[in-house]
Amino acid sequence: MLSALSNAPLHTITPDMRRTFVRSFIFSPYRNVFEHLVPGTNNLAAGDTAQTLRKGFYPPSFGVETGYAQLWEQEHRSGDFFAVKQVRDAGIIDNWNTQPGSTLSVLVNRFNAAKAELLSVGAVPAVKAFVWIQGESDNTTSVADYELRLKDLLNNLRVAGVIQPATRVLLVGLKAGGNPDVAKQNVAAADPANVRFVSTTDLPTYDGVHYDAAGMAELSQRVYNAAYDATALIIPARTGTGLAAGGAKARSRVEVYPNPAHHSVAVRLPDAAVPTERAFLLDARGRVVRTQAGGRAGAVLTIETAGLAPGVYTLRLLTGAQVLSRRVTLQ
User: Fold this and answer.
1) Which residues, including other chains, have CB under 8 Å from residue 58's CB and lie 6 or more apart?
2) Residue 286's domain spans which residues?
3) What is the pLDDT of residues 116-133, one digit of tens each?
């Protein structure tokens, strides 16, 4: 679930993101069906209207759902990812009230329609994360007022079944910070087991407010990490992350052996112009289970895996302007 999100320009990302995703789907509220996610084609953006969408016109842009879907497909070998996105008529947080026709009611209706669509084909949907990206219109709202309204909103979403007991609530900050960010941090601090605050003040934008392609790709990474508790990987913005600027060439120079592995795995670091800062090993749920300092280009690291359960893991290398990933199987 993603709410109140503006998109970033599509033309500056690599072709691997301008594609039809195989196991990632997005709900079309105007057709009441899930469609394969195609960035720039069926991912809603702020300002989209029913009329333009029915005509098949979509702004060439992408949002958090695109980077999230790419990471999810890389790290999950089976299953499907479904996104429900609400961005139209977001406005101030006061608009998210319980009155008929409010932005909140539109979101709940959209969620229920998406849930019914999944149930009709025998699926049992579970909401992994609820992502809240809003606040530009509330810069003059006091911290206390925004915090109160945000808590009311989250409670109403829990009552409506949109936010479920196992759902991670992700409150995304604003580029400019301000009162909404302080309020979001307060709400997250009050419920650390279920709510996370994702800072964005260091992300690049194209107009001082809205994230450019690199900023949106990095935000996707941070949201994904927060959803899966990989807090060690919530890193500062990098204008050439593996999502925004590709990274396939560097990835091809990463050697992992033996793979499958038993008690340890050796990693030959890429021949990048800058050294690898750190290596992370994540389990199937995205949790960091091993970390290790990096090294110079071409160096070999040994990551001990004794004590870890057999299964598929993801190795991530923080190298210069890229976050590189490789799949590792433990037996």
Assistant:
1) 40, 41, 42, 43, 44, 45, 48, 52
2) 248-330
3) 988 888 888 889 999 998
